[in-house]
Amino acid sequence: MDAKNVVVLDYEYTDAHSVQQALIDSLQQVGLSVTLSADRKTVMSADGLVVPGVGAFSTVLEQLDLVDGATLIDQRLARSLPVLGINVGFQVLFGSLSEDNQEGLEQWPGTVEKLQADSHEGWTQVRPQESSELFEGLEDQEFFFAHTHAVLNDPWENHSGPLKKPLVAWATHGLDFIAAVENGPLKATQFHPERSGEAGLQLLENWGKTL
Predict the structure, then answer these.
(1) Measured distance CA(3)–CA(15) in Å, rounded
(2) How many domains does the chain have?
(3) Rounded-to-integer distance, Cα 50 and Cα 35, Å
(4) Distance between CA atoms of 93 and 96, rounded to whole angstroms?
(5) pLDDT score of 183
(6) What SS3 class is residue 135?
(7) Strands 167-173 and 175-183
(8) pLDDT digits over 117-161, tens only?
(9) CATH code assigned at 84
(10) Residue 166's domain spans which residues?
(11) What are the Cα distances from residue 50, in Å, to 3, 73, 115, 172?
C-alpha cells in the first residue's frame, strides 16, 4: 500500500522553517509521505493537511490569510478531509482571542485566553478521553508544550443536538486547559507532537491511521 500523503501548510509565521522541517521529519518517521505546500490543488488532494503555527495569534491569522488558509481548511472540512492543527494552529481554530477580541477561524466555539501562570514551556501529562483515536496507547504520557495562551473552558460543556460532541483532552499549568480536540476530520493539539519524542511520534502515527 502506498504511503498516505500529507501536506504541511506552507505559510510564514515565527520560526516557520524550523517548525515545518521538524514536522516533516516526524511525519516521515511514521511512514507518511509529506509535501510542504499552499497550492490549492495539492492541499485539496492530500490525504491529510497539517496546520502548524508558532508566535502571535493575530500574526498567524494574517499569514494564513495570505495563502487563503481559512478557505483551504473550510473546503477540506466540507468534504470531511482530515486536518490537524498544532500549537497556534490549534488556537486559531477557535472563535476568538480574549485580549483584543480578535476573531479566530471559528471552526470551534470558545475563547483563547492568556495563561494566568507563567508561560508554559516543558513536559506535561495530557488526560485524554477513553475513546480517543489520537491518544490510543498514550493515556498516561507527557507531551511538550510551549505557549502563553490556552483555551481554559470547555466550549462544548453543555453540548446538545444531533452532532457528536468533540473529544477534549486536558492538561494543567496553574489551571486546567484544553490540550487537544478531536472533532471528526478536524483534530488539533496545543502541544508540539514533533517535539514530544516517542509519544509525539506515536500520536502522529495514530493520526496517520485515521487518514
Answers:
(1) 28
(2) 1
(3) 10
(4) 9
(5) 97
(6) coil
(7) antiparallel
(8) 889 999 999 999 999 999 999 998 999 999 999 999 999 998 877
(9) 3.40.50.880
(10) 5-209
(11) 16, 10, 25, 25
Mean per-residue pLDDT over the chain, rounded: 96
- Helix, strand, or coil (residue 208): helix
The grid cell for 70 is 481559512
User: Which helix (H) or strand (E) segment is 166 a member of?
Assistant: none
pTM summary value:
0.97
Dihedral of the CA atoms 34, 36, 39, 40 (nearest 10)?
50
Q: Which amino acid is at 28?
A: Q
pLDDT at position 1: 62
**Alpha carbon distance 187, 117 (integer Å):** 26
| Whether 53 contacts 88, CB under 8 Å | yes
Rounded to the nearest angstrom, the gap between the alpha carbon of residue 186 and the centroid of all alpha carbons in its chain is 8
